[in-house]
Amino acid sequence: MSSSWTPDESSGTLLAEKGWLQGAVVSAIAYGIDVALYLMCFHLLFRQMNRMNYKKNLPLLMYITITFILSTLFMAALADFTQLAFIQYRDYPGGPNEFENNMFGIPVDNLGNVCAFLTMILSDGLVVWRCMVIYRGCMVPMWIIMLFPGLMYLASTAMGIMFLLQVTTNSPYFSSTNVNYTVPYLSLSLALNIIITIVIVLRLLTYRHRITKVLGSDYGTQYTSIAAMIIESAALYSTISVAFLTLFLLNNPISATFIQSLTQIQIIAMFLIVFRVAQGKSWSQDTMSRVMTSRPSVQAIRMGDIGYNLGDGSKTFTGSSGFGMHQSYKSNERDSAEADV
Prior knowledge:
The chain is about 70% helix and about 5% strand. Helix 2 (about 55-90) packs antiparallel against helix 4 and helix 5 packs antiparallel against helix 7 (about 180-215). By secondary structure, the protein is mostly helical. The longest helix has about 40 residues, at about 10-50.
């Protein structure tokens, strides 16, 4: 290929544009996964809904539907803005990268920013709620556990509102200040998800240890397996968040790939949680008691392992102390036979 066809831009600018375009492609792929998960969640929740559980299922149906609408609007705005930068206004001075930096306040980009903000608020609220559910019954008071995540959630919401005002208004306050609210807004939201991921995983690991110690490794796996921990804690989104923050702090242009797809990946993580809730596999307030009573021989665990052998008219009992007791006896049939002889 001829090098004369390459735009007269720096390698850093070209790398940033590649990251942006690739991020739009990854976001489109993630949106396809969103569509599939939404249909699965909606079908499962709607099929199970009746007069007994509609108060539980209806809010979840509304939640996933609103989130899916926001996801669709965000994807449409991202696709349109990408088309404007790379096709319709390709000769903008500085190229698509400068177009993105200077035209973030146009209506189509504002639509994407508002949808991303609302999606992040809904998603962060869901993981905070799941943290509350998983930590119910803890010896530490709930308000102490949720104080720090709750404050971070409120701070993230406040910074998100400031971010939207900064990019959508021409207020003299925002034009005169040097504060970029994008950084604290994203940092607080991403840090909140990372922290909640860690505390949820620690809690589920604790439950897993207790269940395995009492009932063995075959019980409670649907609640405490590695896959369950990854889904319940939204670890998928937290992992992408860590990658984005690392690249962003290093001022690497590839961070644009992650930030473009961050919203759709967050929705995937949320839909996976809702799908587990709809399946009845997510951790709930009474999960521990249900798991502990799911084994038919729970009483045997408390009294000790009992072996029972009917080999040749004998019984052998083995207690938890390890001592055995053997008793031989003659059955009534054998007694009567010997009497006849």
